[in-house]
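Title: Prediction job returns without error message
Component: structure pipeline
Severity: low
Priority: P3
Assignee: unassigned

Description:
Job completed but the reporter wants confirmation the result is attached to the right record. Sequence as submitted:
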Amino acid sequence: MSVEPAREFVDAHVLVYALDRTAAGKQTAARALLERLWDSGTGCLSVQVLQEFYVTTTRRLPRPVAIEEAAERVREFALWRTFAPTAGDVLEAIALQQQAKINFWDAMIVHAAAELGCSTLWSEDLNASQVLRGVVVRNPFAPGVAR
């Protein structure tokens, strides 16, 4: 009997830094993590992450990515396990926001990771080592973090 490797959820900033040519250190770390997740087949994300990635890379980077390139990256990442929230998920995130004292959008990310059965959430927006809904937050850009 084979055991499926642990799933890992990636926040939008990780995807963005993989394309951001102005953030060399973070770009290297993001690319290494994403490459490992592609190779292992354990990468997960949500529709929210894809939306944030698209808007950020095409409008907010110092050197924006062409719409066509960003759309192609969205197509590629859509091959990962992807969480598509319902109205009930919004209510669950609201409850998590109140319970954990985090902002709503971060609560949606944590909820998505938990719903996909992820053991790890890669994000620089939450406190590293924090455990929320059974998901451990890890910052892929922190010094000494194994990606």
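Comment from assignee: result matches the submitted record. The helical segments are 12-19, 24-40, 47-60, 67-77, 87-100, 104-115.
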